[in-house]
Design brief:
Deaminase/reductase, 213 residues, Dihydrofolate Reductase, subunit A, alpha/beta, two-stranded antiparallel ribbon, 17% helix, 5 helices, 11 strands, globular, single chain
Length: 213
């Protein structure tokens, strides 16, 4: 069976997004600092349709993170568009433009039904309203034997962690403090069967990989 592989950047005080998240500032105040380590990487820029970039100690981590992924699961906040029912007059199509960087099926956890959204480049967003297990089952079928990425945000990750459904977790620990926002491990008091299997320390981020024992 394919693995569910979670990955996210986190501050030293445990936040994966800063306070006061809005449509204009989706990562909250200071939240972009969590991702400054990855923006210059060629391995990150290429899937986003950008040229250039650098290679450093984080490059193999990013390449491994992107390898063998056939589908992605994300929460409503990560897809965006604000809370509540979808705006049918001015529909929200995500943060990534007409050609999102996924190039595979993406399943969005939401309380509000919406027809699938087909984008350029092979990405289709499917909106799942029944359960996290249903989203995982659909993602695994769509992945065709490849692994499924769990992209966040915090509340989606918490649900899968508490249910014991995560097979691998890649935490990118960034040496910054946000002081508020969305804390990853709120209401999650154990990693269950996940154990630390790899640490890669760099000047800008420490990569911590956990996997089932």
């Amino acid at each position: 069976m394919s693995k569910l592989r979670f990955r996210i950047s986190m501050s030293l005080d445990g936040f994966v997004a800063g306070p006061n998240q809005t449509l204009q500032e989706p990562l909250g105040v200071g939240g972009e600092r969590l991702h400054e380590w990855v923006f210059p990487l060629e391995a990150w820029r290429r899937p986003h349709g950008m040229e250039g970039g650098i290679a450093n100690e984080s490059t193999p981590v990013m390449e491994e993170e992107l390898a063998n992924i056939g589908a992605t699961i994300m929460g409503r906040n990560m897809f965006g568009g604000g809370p509540g029912p979808w705006n049918t007059a001015d529909p929200w199509n995500g943060w990534w433009g007409d050609t999102p960087p996924f190039s595979h099926p993406v399943f969005v956890l939401t309380h509000h039904a919406r027809v699938p959204l087909v984008m350029q480049g092979g990405t289709t967003f499917t909106f799942v309203t029944d359960a996290i297990e249903s989203a995982l089952d659909q993602a695994r079928r769509a992945a065709g034997g490849k692994d499924v990425a769990l992209a966040g945000g915090a509340r989606a990750a918490q649900q899968y962690l508490k249910a014991g459904l995560v097979d691998e977790a890649q935490l990118h620990l960034v040496p910054t403090l946000l002081g508020g926002g969305e804390r990853l491990f709120d209401d999650v008091n154990a990693l269950g069967d996940l154990a630390l299997v790899k640490t890669v320390a760099t000047p800008n981020v420490v990569h911590l990989k956990f996997a089932r024992k």
